[in-house]
Amino acid sequence: MHFTIQREALLKPLQLVAGVVERRQTLPVLSNVLLVVQGQQLSLTGTDLEVELVGRVQLEEPAEPGEITVPARKLMDICKSLPSDVLIDIKVDEQKLLVKAGRSRFTLSTLPANDFPTVEEGPGSLTCNLEQSKLRRLIERTSFAMAQQDVRYYLNGMLLEVSTDTLRAVATDGHRLALCAMQAPIGQAERHQVIVPRKGILELARLLTDPEGMVSIVLGQHHIRATTGEFTFTSKLVDGKFPDYERVLPKGGDKLVIGDRQALREAFSRTAILSNEKYRGIRLQLAAGQLKIQANNPEQEEAEEEISVDYNGSSLEIGFNVSYLLDVLGVMTTEQVRLILSDSNSSALLQEAGNDDSSYVVMPMRL
């Protein structure tokens, strides 16, 4: 194997692929990246056995084909440290990878390509083409609500649900739920659900950077695969039953509050400073045309904010974890938001004013 490549052309896919590779691996080959040269194309593959990422680069010069695996982190650090306009010459010689650039020389250890595991491809059951920007928006609007290390492992991921011409993403950690839907050209009538693990979702969002580009999604029985011109990303699915999110969405709330998103966000942020650091509880008191926000902590410190809102129902007092409310307001984009409540023991439903494609549920706290 022998090829030359501009540093910039190599660094971009290498950084993406190295992001998948885990630093502490039980199998040495898993901390390596697989380099394959075929014709005028170089492909780079990284995996941790749960997710796999293949990046592709066209080579400008004719190359000598071959395949080898080398330490991902070291190769990336070498590329990063070289001048930006340099041409890199890479070849395999006696089971070592020789990297030359300008007056720099590096010799890296290798492991045979045959040792490199591939994520098994199961049968793909459903394929759709989506705009990268729309899929990224779907993930960004919901991924904050995924659980992090819950024993209910199916919560440490995101539900993707496909039904007639709609793709829906749902995430919940048991205390809050985020749901977002988008129109998608899917000719599938019956509902199809998969749970993508947390790492898979976060990696996928990182890859969807082309605002004009498309991404092809294949949902198989055990894998989800996303392909663009530059990369192919594969993630195992979580085997489990996701909670019925439709039962969690509050129905029949009779108290509708409409407020300025930025003003609410700022008021919550200020009040949060003096909330209990562990429980992050704040108290909301609703009266006609006004919302009072209060927080206190074990040191007997108190914060209070008053904000004008569009509300003319009966008065209500309810407690929430302020972090959950701030997370929701942080991903919304409209100027006005609506908050639907029923009583102090029922979950709140938050939505953008005049836009139904996203819904957020936050459970109340006893204060």
Fraction of helical residues: 10-25%
Please compute the radius of gyration using only Cα atoms: 25 Å
- Silhouette: elongated
Give the averaged pLDDT, no decimals: 95
Strand content: 35-45%
Structural class: alpha+beta
Subcellular location: Cytoplasm
Domain DNA polymerase III beta sliding clamp C-terminal: 247-366
Domain DNA polymerase III beta sliding clamp N-terminal: 1-119
Pfam family, one: DNA_pol3_beta
SSE layout and pairing:
Layout: E1 2-6, H1 7-20, E2 32-38, E3 41-47, E4 51-58, E5 66-71, H2 72-81, E6 87-93, E7 96-101, E8 104-109, E9 124-131, H3 132-140, E10 157-163, E11 166-172, E12 176-183, E13 192-197, H4 198-207, E14 214-220, E15 223-227, E16 231-236, H5 245-248, E17 255-260, H6 261-272, E18 281-287, E19 290-296, E20 302-308, E21 316-321, H7 322-331, E22 336-341, E23 348-352, E24 355-362
Antiparallel strand pairs: 1-6, 2-3, 2-5, 3-4, 4-16, 6-7, 7-8, 9-14, 10-11, 10-13, 11-12, 12-24, 14-15, 15-16, 17-22, 18-19, 18-21, 19-20, 22-23, 23-24
Helix pairs in contact: 1-2, 3-4, 6-7
Protein name: Beta sliding clamp
Domain DNA polymerase III beta sliding clamp N-terminal: 1-119
GO cellular component, one term: DNA polymerase III complex
Key terms:
single chain; 367 residues; alpha+beta; eight-stranded antiparallel sheet; 24 strands
Summarize the entry for a quick read.
Helix content is 19%, strand content 43%.
Provide an overview of this structure.
With 367 residues, the protein is an alpha+beta fold. It contains seven helices and 24 strands. The protein has helices at 7-20, 72-81, 132-140, 198-207, 245-248, 261-272, 322-331, and strands at residues 2-6, 32-38, 41-47, 51-58, 66-71, 87-93, 96-101, 104-109, 124-131, 157-163, 166-172, 176-183, 192-197, 214-220, 223-227, 231-236, 255-260, 281-287, 290-296, 302-308, 316-321, 336-341, 348-352, 355-362. It has an eight-stranded antiparallel β-sheet with strand order 5-2-3-4-16-15-14-9. The chain has an eight-stranded antiparallel β-sheet with strand order 13-10-11-12-24-23-22-17. Helix 1 packs antiparallel against helix 2 (72-81), helix 3 packs across helix 4 and helix 6 (261-272) runs antiparallel to helix 7. The relative contact order is 0.11. The mean pLDDT is 95.
